[in-house]
């Protein structure tokens, strides 16, 4: 399995793999855990970028982080608004219908891949993402 030399990126990518794998599971609990993993990946991705680029920023407010990456032209207004909208779903995650969780997870995975590309230049083709996700799943014995 490919290991990224940047430990933060490696953590984010593994959160994405884990979220992708759990998203495929048929249970509601797995879909909720998938969402949490993806959301954690989003927060780690944005927080790592903010810390790297703006050492003087001490806020832990997610909305402020999104504003900062938008100001740096690292995210579009639509991507920022969608990220904010999905992140807020975490507050009521257990009340979300299964069909909605499937859609949210799919879209949130795409947003995390976009953030990895925009913030850290980490890009993979669709087939490489799928291949590496399968390798990670095998590594976890799932």
Short overview:
With 142 residues, the protein is mainly α. It has helices at residues 7-23, 28-53, 62-71, 77-88, 98-120, 126-139.
Model description:
With 142 residues, the chain is mainly alpha-helical. It has one domain (7-139). The chain has 6 helices and no strands. It has helices at 7-23, 28-53, 62-71, 77-88, 98-120, 126-139. Helix 1 runs antiparallel to helix 5. The radius of gyration is 15 Å and the shape is globular. The mean pLDDT is 90.
Which spans have pLDDT < 50 for at least 5 consecutive residues?
A: none
Quaternary organization? single chain
Largest sheet: none
Percent range of helical residues = over 70%
- Strand tally is 0
Number of domains: 1
**Number of helical elements:** 6
Tell me the span between the first and last alpha carbons.
Answer: 15 Å
Task: List the defining traits of the structure above.
mainly alpha; 142 residues; 72% helix; globular
Write the layout of secondary structure elements.
Elements: H1 7-23, H2 28-53, H3 62-71, H4 77-88, H5 98-120, H6 126-139
Helix pairs in contact: 1-2, 1-5, 1-6, 2-3, 2-5, 3-4
